[in-house]
């Protein structure tokens, strides 16, 4: 699985909700309107949009697909067909994903934090950091994966001793 595939898979991973999350009933009506507006500005702003565009670009989607396509289906034609499907599906689901990010941002971050984040991401430095997110994640994953593999091997060895 490629670095990009791992990063996207982590983003798209859907886990079973915890009991706390399952009982949470935060809705748009329960969130302060100003905080919701700032959360929307944060998620739909240029920095976050650029980051999402990078992650869901053809290159990003190819990385994800390479990690999930069945073995033996990696020829160019299959990949092109899968990429077309993935892009169509992403166009359908991305608005809902962004809406969920807005709701989560409004629920988790304070109004002051959202205002500060929006101000930062409108600055040259913030835009610069946002534009380098994919490069950062790739660099991080290259450094992280050997450590994670070592950790998992050690963990599996020690846990297997319990039985």
Poorly predicted runs of 5 or more residues: 1-26
Cα shape? extended
Radius of gyration: 19 Å
Number of strands: 0
The profile of the biggest β sheet is:
none
Q: What would the average pLDDT be, to the nearest integer? A: 79
Kindly report how far apart the N and C termini lie: 31 Å
Helix content: over 70%
Discrete helix count: 9
Structural class assignment = mainly alpha
- List the secondary-structure elements in sequence, H or E: HHHHHHHHH
Tell me what portion of residues adopts beta-strand conformation: under 5%
Q: SSE layout and pairings?
A:
Blueprint lengths: L2 H10 L6 H5 L9 H12 L1 H10 L2 H11 L7 H33 L2 H12 L1 H8 L1 H28 L3
Key terms for this structure?
163 residues, mainly alpha, 9 helices, extended
Walk me through what this model shows.
The protein is 79% helix and 0% strand. By secondary structure, it is mainly α.
Summarize the structure.
The chain is 79% helix and 0% strand.
